[in-house]
Amino acid sequence: MRERWARLLALASLPVVLVLALGFGWQQLQRGQSLASATDPELWRRLYPVHVASYMQGREHDIDTEHDRLAENPFRARAWAGLAFELEYNAPRAHYYAQIDQRNSLRTQERNQPAGCIHCHAAEAPALVAELGWDTLNAMSFNDIKTRVHHGSSCADCHQPGNMALTITRPALRNALQSQGIDPDNAAPEQMREYVCAQCHVEYFFSGDGNELVFPSENGLTLDNIEGFYDALGFSDWTHAQTGADLVKMQHPNYELHSQGPHAAAEVTCVDCHMPRVPFQGTQITDHWIRSPLQQVQQACMNCHRGEAERLAQRTLRIQQHTDDLLAADRVRTQRADGCLDRRPG
Ligand code: HEC
Ligand code: HEC
Ligand code: HEC
Ligand code: HEC
Ligand code: HEC
């Protein structure tokens, strides 16, 4: 008797469970689909209020943080004579500003630029590639495409809507990985914590008459690999206006540089330092502000390093200073009292 009742009850509740499951599945699908086209991070707030608030800290904090890197070192404008960078070059700021800063820069205001510029500066880029096709988009100009882009970066740059798994949305990285024989769809989770950033934080160039955006990493990620790739192609970014030399300007090879360092060797990823776990609004999350780790050395570094956070920060600043000194030829020259390394005329 008991058994019969139990069976009846199970049978009776089956449709209910089915309806609930289908409903839930449908809802997830709907969420995924509606968010897939949601290029405005604000539209993700209903489902992920804490993460959107975390991301938007960059907007609030960086409102007045233009940092002129040409004024900081006047030699830069001269080094880039004839290249758009001679007009304006600033320190980067929060991802929220990626499109705003691009369209306001004198580099796009006063010089023609290719549409490929939006690849890393617009949440709409993947949808526009799907709509127009990669080759058509690349062949357009920035001025033609800029009315179609509104948000610098959004959640779907790095996440699959629906299950929020990390994902590669940018074609130039997919192409670069494939050219190295790597399958972009089968990366390990740890590797994805670098690939999401390597979609944008890399050296790039515009190839051929069709201005295709390409990452020059086919031969590997070292400076020699990249230089060799450019030499074989006979590529240069521009001809220097004062010396007539054909030159390449490396952009922001954060991924390539990181890959050569001690942290990558120890499998420490970009996310470990730039998006550490932090307490925020009463819970623990992956930090979505995405900024300098030196602003929170305790959270960003001290899970792995022992000793005092302040000492590690000072050590990092010393390494930066050393690199700056190597770059600043003038400073090196004045440090060489005998001047024997300075063979420049005058
Ligand atoms: C492969 C991705 C990528 C492409 C393509 C790209 N950018 Fe960027 N851009 C970045 C990243 C990453 C930063 C921030 C890092 C940095 O500035 O060091 C940045 C920073 C900037 C900035 C702010 C800092 C500065 O340099 O003044 C401007 C403006 C900018 N880019 C304009 C452009 C223009 C114009 C183009 C096309 C010629 C372009 N970007 C193409 C990734 C890209
Ligand atoms: C630049 C890439 C990037 C962007 C843009 C980004 N995320 Fe993330 N997000 C990550 C990474 C990396 C993790 C850690 C997940 C991992 O390692 O598996 C993460 C984790 C999460 C998680 C899981 C919970 C947690 O705290 O770890 C949620 C939810 C999330 N992100 C929501 C968002 C939302 C909402 C936005 C848009 C406001 C967004 N993300 C934008 C990279 C990104
Ligand atoms: C879709 C392209 C894109 C992706 C993906 C991306 N970035 Fe960026 N990132 C940019 C651009 C563009 C800027 C410069 C925005 C500006 O200055 O207006 C930037 C700026 C930054 C800055 C400087 C912020 C500051 O306040 O100084 C850091 C740090 C950074 N990104 C780290 C990362 C890390 C780490 C990842 C991966 C988890 C990542 N980014 C993924 C394009 C991207
Ligand atoms: C071991 C920690 C660590 C790892 C791993 C790491 N970074 Fe950084 N990153 C730093 C520190 C420290 C700075 C310097 C911040 C400062 O000077 O305020 C920095 C600076 C930056 C900047 C700002 C540069 C500028 O011009 O202001 C960007 C962008 C960036 N990193 C991106 C990345 C990306 C992308 C990866 C992975 C490929 C990565 N970082 C891996 C610690 C790290
Ligand atoms: C996930 C773990 C992890 C995180 C997070 C991390 N590190 Fe490291 N760090 C390491 C490991 C592992 C090494 C390599 C140790 C070795 O090879 O002896 C290292 C090495 C270093 C070195 C020595 C580099 C050299 O040339 O000898 C410095 C400096 C350093 N880290 C600074 C930092 C700073 C600053 C941060 C935060 C922005 C940070 N680390 C975050 C694990 C980490």
Please give a structural write-up.
By secondary structure, the protein is mainly alpha-helical. The protein has two domains: 249 residues, Flavocytochrome C3, Chain A (Flavocytochrome C3, Chain A, domain 2, Orthogonal Bundle); 41 residues, no CATH class. 47% of the residues lie in helices and 5% in strands. Strand 5 and strand 6 form a beta hairpin. The protein is globular. The C terminus is likely disordered.
Radius of gyration: 25 Å
Unreliable parts: 334-346
Query: How big a fraction of the residues is strand?
Result: 5-15%
Strand order of the largest sheet: 1-2
CATH topology of the largest domain: Flavocytochrome C3, Chain A, domain 2
Task: Provide the list of bound ligands, each named once.
Answer: heme C
- For CATH, the homologous superfamily of the largest domain is named as Flavocytochrome C3, Chain A
- CATH C-level class of the largest domain is Mainly Alpha
